Amino acid sequence: MNAPDPSPSSGLRADAPASDQIVRIGEARHASQGLLRATLGSCVGIGLIWRARGRCVLAHCLLPSAPLPGGAPLFEIDRDPRACARYVDRALPVLLRLLEADRHAHRELEAVLVGGASLAKLGRGAAGQIGRHNIEAARAVLAQAGLRVVLEQVGGAKGWQVAINASQFTCSAREIAAPAERQNATPHEVMHGHARTR
């Protein structure tokens, strides 16, 4: 459902290098410098920026909700780092824990929501609606937490790449063109909600 990333997966790590960190499916990562990046198809990327504390986080969510919601415990970050953000409804608590942000800090956080494409290869059935359901679930959890969304680029039929610059506290989303279109297309990029072409 998502394009593969070139670097090896290493789970969620506090000691990851300050350069680019690729956030793979089901992972959540945090950084105080460098870039957090994810390539998204029907998955959604949920990011949080906390300027006051110099911290950023990004989760790569595969599905809107975990099986048996309310019955199963939240994934433990230390025990299951590669699956702690697999579900949208479980990702936000993980991100807030990584930031060490309590409810009083929510007004200082900036949220990023990217992805949720409707991919042709998933068809028109239930699988083809995963992207839409992921978007709806992500909007709901962010609204419930009272978090302000500073960048939202969702839907479409191609997919997205999202990047959060933890050194400059900026975020951007770039739509991925289909291979046959790349030659004639101008990449469409959005930064902090302002569209631009390059």
Strand count, sense and barrel status of the largest sheet are: 6 strands, mixed
Q: From the 3D coordinates, which CATH architecture would you assign?
A: 2-Layer Sandwich
Which consecutive residue ranges, at least 5 long each, have pLDDT under 50? 2-17, 178-188, 193-198
The total tally of domains equals 1
Tell me the CATH topology. Answer: 60s Ribosomal Protein L30, Chain: A
Oligomer: single chain
Q: How many helical stretches?
A: 2
Strand content: 25-35%
Radius of gyration: 16 Å
Number of DSSP-assigned strands: 11
Chain-averaged pLDDT: 80
Shape: globular
Q: Percent range for helical residues?
A: 10-25%
- Structural class, by secondary structure, is alpha+beta
For the record, give the distance between the C-alpha atoms at the N and C termini, rounded to a whole number.
Answer: 27 Å
Main sheet: strand order: 1-3-8-9-10-11
Task: List the helices and strands in order.
Answer: EEEEEHEHEEEEE
CATH class: Alpha Beta
